[in-house]
Amino acid sequence: MARTDFRLRVLMEPRHGATYDEILALALAVEDAGFEAFFRSDHLLGVDPDDRTYRPTDCWTTLGGLARDTRRVRLGALVGAATFRAPGLLATIVASVDQMSGGRVELGLGTGWYEREHAAFGIPFPGTGERFDRFEEVLAIVTGLWRTPEGGTFSFEGKHFSIDENGAPPRPVQRPHPPVIIGGSGPKRTPAIAARFADEFNGALGGDLRERFAIFARACEAIGRDPEEARRSAVLPVACGTTPAEIERRAAIIGSEFMRTNAAIGTPAEVSDRIGALREAGADTVYLHIYDISDLEHIALLGAEVVPHHAAVAPASP
């Protein structure tokens, strides 16, 4: 059953990277427009690995800046690569940003998929099976550290990672910990891992969203978890405009034919209809995927003409 507290969020994935000032300007526009959250991708290369104009920024460094420079929107990664950061360090980074934001952070995490990106920055990229094994251990360590009670210690011995009696685990503001988002289109390991660890399951992009949510629900039931404990979300690339020329200009920015095929391209009413279809498929959260981060008028239009029809706005932080 769909939740009544539907959430509409913005996901930034700039085609050519961005500076922090550009990211901040977009995040503030998202906040002013009434969206509930601002998320960014976790990449060091763009869609085109040969793009020499791409400007990489570290995901969690910029989220730390946004934690201090915004006041209301929730912040997070969709999704971070588990290959990028050692699990104990990741737990500490996210907890630090959660403290800096007053408890507005969420951790989206996946196995990592962009092999060329890893090679370009000297980051190991194991095979698919090993990446899933490591991903599962990372989640066990991060959530285990966060859940360790005061005065307790946390230890973990896995095939790839180990923690030796950590008696000073990182302490996020949100308890028991910041929400964990896991998603993807895989029919087996992804939903099984999400059933164990996810506060939100993201059905990714394209394909049968309703079926992906059903597979996740069955994975929850298989381990005795109530599927309704977790949120369900979807990603929707968007190019919205009030004139054909404006729509066409924004649609041209969308990264690939696959993205355009699955995008909401059209007037505010047409974009709202696409969001409504995702809600009917079971999504209680939709991330509007934005590529042109300098087009702040696009955000303002979505805030004025789309957000009021769908989204609940989070209360301001004290």
From TrEMBL:
One Gene Ontology MF term: alkanesulfonate monooxygenase activity
Keyword Nucleus listed: no
Assigned keywords, A-Z: Flavoprotein, FMN, Monooxygenase, Oxidoreductase
Origin: domain of life: Bacteria
Boundaries of every Luciferase-like domain copy: 14-252
Membrane found in the keyword field: no
GO biological processes: alkanesulfonate catabolic process
NCBIfam families per record: F420_Rv1855c
Protein name: Probable F420-dependent oxidoreductase, Rv1855c family
